Amino acid sequence: MYECLKGLEPVRFFEIFSGLCQIPHGSKNERAISDWIYQFCRERNIEVWQDDHYNLIAKKPATPGYENAPIVILQAHLDMVCEKNAGTVHDFAKDPISVQRDGDRIYAEGTTLGADDATGVAFAMCVLEASDIPHPQLEVVLTADEEAGMSGIRALDFSRLKGRVIVNLDCSDEGIVVGCAGVTCLRNELELKCEKAPQMLEWAKVKIRGLKGGHSGLDITKERGNANLILARILSSLDREIGIRISTVDGGLQTNAICREAEATIAFSPEMKEKLEEKIQWWRQMLAKEFKVSDPGICLLLEETEPLKEVFDEKEVQRLLDLLLNIDCGVIAMNVEVPGVPETSGNIGVVATKDSRVIVRTLYRSCFDSKKQYLIDKNQRLARNLGAEFFIESSSPEWEYKADSRLSALIQRIFEKRFDRKLVVEVSHGGNECGAFFRQFPDADIVCTGTQIIGAHTPDESVLVSIIQKEWEMLCLTLKGMLEY
Length: 485
Hints:
This protein has helices at 11-21, 31-43, 115-129, 151-154, 227-241, 273-290, 314-326, 369-386, 406-419, 434-440, 465-480, and strands at 47-50, 56-60, 72-77, 99-102, 105-108, 138-143, 165-168, 176-180, 182-191, 194-196, 202-209, 214-215, 245-251, 257-258, 262-268, 299-304, 310-312, 330-334, 342-354, 357-366, 389-396, 425-428, 445-448, 462-464. By secondary structure, the chain is an alpha+beta fold.
């Protein structure tokens, strides 16, 4: 157990959370953590099933007096978003998370913490293990690859589940979530002709740093800068006014995180160096104005670098810039029924140069499947016009809001009685696995709850001990209260 978490209540939660943080479990690397939980269940004689995708289903009988209460499904995901600051030395495939604590705040040193969703997993494991929590029959579903495409839940054998009351533990901001957007991840691959780099050019890297980034659904209305889009704007102006040559463009690590850092390798004629530096300074001033509220730490760097052997053909660069500048990025439409919540949005999450190929991965969210399909069609046509290859990497359904949810009403009553104030009830623009449950079981009663995540999907991710304690108490009270459902 991490020294900084010793002595915190609930003790068993923080012991289990520590164990999870010491096992690398980025998306598509869930085998070790799945095996660890599987063994945890077997050692405690808990009925458990593991599939080939490393999804887990564990079942626990009702405690005495709760045999006739409805079966409750507790659900969380095993994987985490792997983001780190430039310069942070950390291998997400091998290294444990460097968990730190500053008073009430728990965070990681230079990387994402993985509390999204290790807190939900730890809550579920604590309930499975406990002998002093009254509850109905439980079905605990822990899925793989939620963050990078939801392939785990798409492969889940839903026929093994009998419950239709579902408590999703994949985090919430201030209260509970009762609906969410559908998500699709698209990939464009552009093969660009290259040529031998002309002699007598000077070389530099253009770097975007200092952006806050964030969750591409929950933080999209904060108008934070997307480094991939900002870099494309800068490169377009330098191409037009300086005549630069471009050799590489790279930015972002995850599609579901607003891109914080991006860079390009460029070459230019020595006599244009002064003009280039002046243009970079002009951009620094413009970016400072544009992002003075949302990203006051934005930094544009121009650094000398070693020459590369090849550059993209000048005409081919226009195809690349046309692609990057015509992909919808940011809020596309706001929800007219739920004030303050986006209806549809886009995020250019990853741009990567692989030899002569540039790969662009974009995540779209919408509460309407029709709008999601519109964006798929739009991107496919853009790719066709630019000669790019187009792929739909993943797609997950929206979760429709139900005003008559008995589970939501129960949790609100319990919260108000315990804390003497109203519970916040939200519809989220963040996608989660509730949509998959809703598609499988349209009659299901679903609520998403769990620990508030601060700075989700960024190296600033943190959770508060006090909120974990409150959410653990609420989960126990909700299970106990299922006799009143």
